[in-house]
Amino acid sequence: MKTITTKFDWTVYNLKKIREAISNSSNLHLTSDLFSSSEFPTLGWELHLFLGGEATVWLRQIGPDNIKNALVNTKYKIYAEQYSTWTVIAKFPYKFENSDKMGFSIISLDSFLNHKGKKQWPEYSKSTFFLNKQMSFMLAESSGIKISPRKQLCHIGLKIIKTHRWSTLFLHCEVEFDCYNLTLDLQEAYLNMFENETFTDFVIKVDDEIIKTHRCVLAQNSVVFQRMFDQNLMIEAQKGEVIISDTSPECVRAMLEFFYTGKINDALMESHVEGIFAIAHKYEVDKLKYICERFMASQLNKDNIVKYCNIISLYGALVLEERVKAIFDSIKA
């Protein structure tokens, strides 16, 4: 599990003028740009401001599963600037809530509008909202705001005229959420099971080391171990142990780490790749053989090409062989 935080600022310019441009019987729904964290881009949020009989603010969560009206427990706070200080107007209630209207709150809009009495604003600025077509037409007709169509929604740019009085709403949102990587969580759980020797039922002896492991994991990853355990008459299956004398403890542990997590420590791969490949070949672990061959092919040079040619001759490493052939073909050309 990893906790990720993200922040977002939304400035709504000329809000008073927009409110005056629509009739009292009309509603106005403004939506901020989507914001998210680069660490978890499939999950995002939008701030919403609805102006009707009352002004309401809420946060909408989009993703990661795109389930409509999903219940979520994302932590957040929504602030509005009030007299140069930030006031919390909505926050996580410490219970599950609808992802479409998180922190739905009624606010006193006039108390949060910032009137900059003496500051001169630039003649042109821009604020992005998403409105339905009918509301966009009303704004264009009554206020002179220039609106450009964008599919079924309208992207509007507000022309700001220099003025001595300005109504602006500043909103700030902070979001904190826990993301889970199920693959990493499983890898960590299985590695802990191996390192803590949790309910182990088989022993591998190599040099002076005794490595405790699990039959089911060995059988699942190695054709040789599966045959060994299928045949109860084999002495290794009966005794619950096997002695490996033609490799090092580091190579055995690297193979077992691959069994439990599907990956190998980079340092071990760099220092013991030939030995790891050999034991993977012996116990018919095809995926590990392929990874080792790819690594050796990437490290191929004039100093080790003879050694790798011997490995090809001894084990029949097709991936590595193709790489060696490509090098010789380039030399001939």
Describe this protein with a few key phrases.
elongated, 2 domains, Apoptosis, Tumor Necrosis Factor Receptor Associated Protein 2, Chain A, five-stranded antiparallel sheet, Potassium Channel Kv1.1, Chain A, 333 residues, alpha+beta
CATH level-four homologous superfamily name of the largest domain: Apoptosis, Tumor Necrosis Factor Receptor Associated Protein 2, Chain A
- Helix/strand order, N-terminal first: EHEEEEEEEEEHEEHEEEHEEHHHEHHHHH
What CATH calls the topology of the largest domain is: Apoptosis, Tumor Necrosis Factor Receptor Associated Protein 2, Chain A
Determine the N-to-C terminus distance: 53 Å
Number of strands: 18
Q: What is the architecture of the largest domain at the second tier of CATH? A: Sandwich
**Number of helical stretches of at least 4 residues:** 12
Question: How would you describe the overall organization of this protein?
Answer:
Helix 9 (266-282) crosses helix 10, helix 10 packs parallel to helix 12 (318-332) and helix 11 (305-315) packs across helix 12. This protein starts with a strand and ends with a helix. The chain has two domains: 2-179, Apoptosis, Tumor Necrosis Factor Receptor Associated Protein 2, Chain A (Sandwich); 182-332, Potassium Channel Kv1.1, Chain A, CATH 3.30.710.10. The protein has 333 residues and is α+β, with helices and mostly antiparallel strands. Residues 117-165 have low confidence and may be disordered. It has twelve helices and 18 strands. The chain is elongated, with a radius of gyration of 32 Å. Residues 200-268 form the BTB domain. InterPro entries: BTB/POZ_dom, SKP1/BTB/POZ_sf. This is BTB domain-containing protein. It comes from Meloidogyne incognita.
